[in-house]
Structure formats: structure tokens, C-alpha cells
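A sample follows:
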Amino acid sequence: MRTMNIKQLLVPAVCSLLLLPLQSCDDDADKQAQAEYMKEQIAAFESTVDQLNASILCYQSLLSGEIPVGITPIETGYKVELSGGNAYNIGTGEKVDAFFPLITISQNGNWAYSFDGSNYLDFTDPSGKTLNAYSLEDIEAAYRSPQLQIDNEGFWKMTCDGGTTYAYLSDTSRSRIAAFGGKGSGMSSLFSDIVYNETAGKLSLALGVDKGLKDFPVINNFYLKVKGSEAEDGLTFFLNEERKYEVETSDVVRTRIKAPDGWTVTLENDELSIKAPATTSATKTQNINIIITSSKQYQRTVTLEAKLQNTTFDADYCNAWKEFVSGSENNVLLDFSYAGYMHGEVAPPEMEELIARGYKVFDVTHYGAIPDDDKSDREAFLKALEAAGAKRTLNGNTTRMQVNGDAPLNAIIYFPKGEYILQTEEEVDKTISLTMGGFLIKGAGRNLTTLKMNAKNTMATPGDMWTCPTMIEIKNYSGVNMKSDITEVVADTPKGGFEITVGSVSKIKAGDWVCLYVKNNDPEFVAKEIAPHPISDLNAATSIVKDGAEIYDLHQVASVNGNKVTFKEPIMHEVEAKYNWVIKEYKHYENVGVEDIAFEGKAEERFQHHESSSNNGSYDSEYKLIDLVRLTNSWMRRVNFISVSEAASLVSCANVSAYDIEISGNRGHSAVRSNSSSRVFIGKVYDHSSGYRIPKAGQLAEWMENAGQYHGCGVSKPSMGAVIWNVQWGDDACYEAHASQPRATLIDRCTGAFIPSRQGGDRYEVPNHLGDLIIWNMNATRTGYESNWNNQFVWWDKSSAWSKTVPPVIVGFHGASINFAETFISDVPQNKRIESQGSRVEPYSLYEAQLRRRLGYVPAWLTALK
């Protein structure tokens, strides 16, 4: 036996002792690294575990008798809102790269789990009692449903009492189960299939191990919808900003609002008002919750995610806006905020409100109309009007329906779902003229009810392409009295003023509608109208030179004081008494609506501008289905036009709104226009009719989807103060400025092509547009130039009989590139102002910003349109 000396014994011992601290440090580092790795793994699967738990709670709630009261598609599946007030985001399960359990309900009705897909163990509470999914005990689902969690060491544990106590999951050998280090049979959701049938009102769910679907009825008629909240900036608020929203409800008997500190939120008469705090330290998103209760005491929570900016609404607005607000001498903007029904302050009444006011409903099917039978329903339409109180007379080819004494009809002419033919070959050129106010033409929905014009009209004067009659016109036959004046204007009023001084007020009182009018061919007056361009640029036979500048400006009288008359709206043209301005009588009807309906013609594929078609027809006007003439505070909304020559003209109207309109089918001549009207609002028109591209007069090029009507939405004749808002016209079109002296038009946040020669107008009626054309945040999809314009866009081409627009204001023009000429042929400037070309500016909508500035808030109807 070898004997080791002390030195031999000590050396390895000392060495071992020296190594101990190093090994201890390595162990600690390994443990820390393992802990960090485990923490990362747990965090990575946290949302997956939450998804699994949500599916369990949702299913347990459904089994317990709760009813789905709202199903909303989301990116990962569906948000399911239950009658008890809870909501769960559920989706179908996916295989998970971890050791996840497969959850099911056993044959005994107990919640059970398996990690191998074969051997199942029941979940149990802390006392060892199984968790029965079908238990009738009156306790919340969260307290009888297994809710899973991965602990800090990576082991599965479960609670069934809301997190008070936890128990570890185990396998058949009672060993704890680690979540990582392998793959189990489970998925990220309880469900292997989810089917929602909205029409049938049914939600069908299949568990991961089930072969069939279990159906649950869904209640679809309990909701609160905040219109416009889903828009890009629908819930973005600036400091102290107030917005109003239209609210649509069904079976809501009680509401409760929970708003963050500093927010003021109220809900009254289906209008939600939200006012943001006056201060905040930083931009942040906060939830506004509206808890609604149904007649059966079901509950839902509507959550609005409001983003609060830390600036005032106009802090970053462009120079043009700042100059407008400050009243700078450099200001180039007018106040367009008075456009539209009731000056844009409120929405037109819905059918229910009209009924509450005393309107009666007349269903055309009760008077002989049979939808979808391919026979004329014109007579039934006329009989329904007669039943409502209108009298029928025949004047040549025009059937006139009117009420004695110009009283309102107070009726709703209703077309249920289906197609109704109002013009056949037997009814060609026979107009239906509704000469009355106070009524509504309403369908079951723009995609449900269609009024059809199955035969085209013909030109009243052969060769005059615009003279085909309209199928339906809602019209006052008098309008502006051109034979005599009420009084003369005796003093000047600046542009933007509200008050005029007149010679006599004996025939004027508050509430009256009148026309502020002038027509004068004094060269000085005409020169001012077309400045800075000289009169010599125009042919002597041009109407404005020969007959004079003519202005119609329709107003409602707010008050009369002495010989001063104050209007409710600003005057959008300076008034100089020396040019013989007068006040004229304006006859009109009011409170007329057309909504929730489609108008369909048979416009041919080969639309050609200013060309006749077969049998004395005209591509420009043979399929005109409806016009509104000499109306105030009236509207057209939620309407489709299909294969029409013209969608709708608003002629000699004031404060009429036409919005939420779609134009499709074969392209035609024009869209929706303000013709000789004041403060018309045309908004959210989507024009995507298709046809052949027209490179120049008389030529057809390739077929173009989304070509659009030849003239997009716009103006013609002495239109004043029109707003063309959020309109999308086609890719072979442009806004309309159809000459005959339109003024003061706002093209606001519109999208579409910017093609020359699409504005329209006769060579003897130019300029296409006079002063105060404002093009704001135009998003061009396609641009073009005339061949002689040297690759630039020219507003006033003195070498042409057409293409003449007084210098416009262009702010925020973006999209397809364009080069606006500074001058052309002469040194006269082509533009009044160009600001931020190539980039969108704030405010995005000038009309909205001006309306907000005037009212202090954005009205609900406009927010809903966004």
C-alpha cells in the first residue's frame, strides 16, 4: 500500500477548494440564464394561454345559458359578446410548439384534459370535486371553468375559483406536467371550428375532439352603433374638442356611460356627444365604455378607443387656414360651412321621425305595384300619390301631381324590396312631375329596392343633346320671379357679410326665402368677374360679355331691422349697389327627401360625349331618372345610380344635401351637380361606372373599368357656395365646372382623375368657373394635359374657345403628379394660390373644419359619413 505524505494529500485538496467558487459562479449563471429563458418562454405563450382560457370561459358561459348578443369578426376569429355583459375573443385552435393540453368535456359532462390525446383526467377543484360543465349551480362561469396558467418554473397549473387557489396538472402517474420540452396534443383554443351564420342568427362551435358542431342562437337585434367612429380619424380628439355622432340602436332600454377623467360624454336622442379634456401631458388612448341593457336585461359594452392629442385642433393647420381664421388681408378662403340641409347643422329626419311628425306611409304595393314582374308600376306609383292627397293633371306629355295651395303632402311613398319599372316603351318622353313639398320617396334599401327606366327618352329638340326629358322631376314651377323685383339694394356689402341695405322692406319678413340677384353687362363689372384675365380673351358673342355677368344667390331672411335685411347665410360675392343688385321673390318647396333606393337605366356601353344615339336619343341625356328643382332644405341620401346618362341635377335649389351615393354600371354623361343652386352639399359619392376611355371628342379608346361619368360631381350655371366633399370620381374624368357662371365652389378632400376638357361647358358660356374655386386636398389618381399645354395644366387657355377658369386656390393637391402652369401665353397668373403641392395638409377637410369652428363641434351626420 502506497503511503501519501501530507504534501501529497494537501495539494489536490487545496486545488479542489480553489475550484469550488468557480463552479459555484458557473452554477449561479446557469440558473439565472435558465430562469431568464423560462421567463421568456412563459411570456411568449402568455397570449396563447389567454386565448385558450377565453375559449373555455366563452363555451362555459354558452352552456350555462348565456346568449350571444353580438358577433364581430376580428383578425384572429370573432369577438363574442354575451348577454351577461362579458365579451370573449375566440378563434380556432392551432398546434402549439409546446406541451399544451387538449381540453374537452367528458361523457360525464366534466371538464377534462389530456396531453397525449388518449388518456384524459378530470379537472378538480381544491377539494377534489370534478368541474361539471353543465352544472346548474347559480355561479359565474369563471368559478366553475378551468383556467390555466404556466408557473415561473414552467409547470401547468389550474384555478377554478378566480385565481384564489391553484392546483398543478399532472399525468396518470401524478407527476407535474412541464409546458416546455416537447409537444402535446393540445391547441391554442378549445375550438376546432367556428361558423357564424349572420342570416340564420346562429353560432356553431366544434370542440377540438368533437366531430360535430353545436349550435347557439344569436340575438342580432340588440345593439348600439356609433356611426363614423370607425373612420381613420373618427375617434381622434384634440384638446377641448367636441364631436357629435349619430347613434343607431335596437332594443336598448338603458345606457350607462363610463368615461375617463376629464371627458364629457352624453347620449341623448340617438346623438352621442363627446368632449375631450382641456389639458393632457401627452398623447394617449383611453377607453370610453357605453354599457347598454336590453328589454330582457341582457347587457353589452360598447368600447370606443378615443385618442387624445396634446394640441388644439388647429395647431398644425396650414397657412391658408390660419389666414382665414385671423381675417388676414391675404385670406383666400370663403366660409363654406353653411352648405347643405339646414346649413349642415343636423341630419335630415329619418322615416321614424317623419312618422312621429304626422307623415303617413303609402306602400305602392297596396296600389297595384308588383315587384319583379317585368310590368310597369308607374300607375301604382301615381295612385299611391293620389291616396296621399296629390291631384293628377296631364299637361302634354307630363303627368303633374300637386297639392292644392302648395300645402305639404306629409307622406312617405314607400317601395318595398324588389324592382319596379316606372318607364316602358309606352311611357317614353312622359315625365312624372311632383310639384309639392313635404314628402319622402323611400325604398327598403339602396341594394334592395330599384326603380327602373327600361326605355330611353328622346331629344325634345333634335340635335340638342341635353334636351331629353327626365323620368321623375320634383319641381316648383315658379322659382325666381324674373318679371319683377321685391326691392333694390341701395348700399354695398363686402364678400362674407350677412346684411344688405334695401330700398323697401314692406314685402320682406324673417323666414322668407329670397334671391339676391344681379345681371349687368357693364364692361367694368364683367372685367371684375373674369379678372385677372382681360375681356379681350373672350369672344364678343360669349354670354358674359354680350349679356352680362349674372348672379343668383338664394338666401333665407334671419331678421329685418329698418331697411336692413340680415340673411342666415354669408353672402359669397361682394355686393356693389352701383351694378343694380335687387331682391327677387323665390318660390320653392321644402322638406323633400329621396333615400334608400336605386335608380337604374340602360345606358349603352359605347357612351360618346355630345353624340346622338339611335331613334333620336342622346348619350348625354336619354337616361335621366330624377332631378330636384327649386327645393330648399331637402335631401337625397343612400341612393345608387346604375347605367344612367345623368345621376341627379339639383337645379335652383338652396341648402340641399345629396350624399352617400354610388354610381355604377355603364358610364354616362354626368354625376351629381349643383345647377344654379346656392350652398348645395354633395358628399361621399362613389362614381365607378365603366366605359370606353375618351381621349378626345369623337374618339373611343380602350375599355376602362372605373372610368366614371364623363363629368364628375360639380357645378354648372350660376351655382354659388357648393361643397363637393369626399367624392371619388372615375379615372377618365374630373370635377364638373360646366360654365354659365358658377362661382364659389369647394372641391374638398376628393379623389379621382384630373383630366382636361372634363369640366364641360359651351364655348359661348365660358368661363367654366369664375371666382373662388377652392381645390382642397385633392388626391389625383390620374392626370393629363392638352397637347398644346407643354406638359403643364393650364386653367385659362386664351388660344382655345374652351378651357377657361379664373385662377383657383389649390391647397394640398397630392397623388398623381401634376405641373400647374404659372402663366400661359400671357403673363397673367394662372393660379391665385398654390400651397403644399404634393402633400396633404391639415385640416384634411376644409368644410368640416369650418363647420367645427362655427358650431364648436363636428355634427353627427358628417362624422357618420366618414
User: Anything to note?
Assistant: The CA atoms of residues 107 and 545 lie 93 Å apart. Residues 1-22 have pLDDT under 50 and may be disordered.
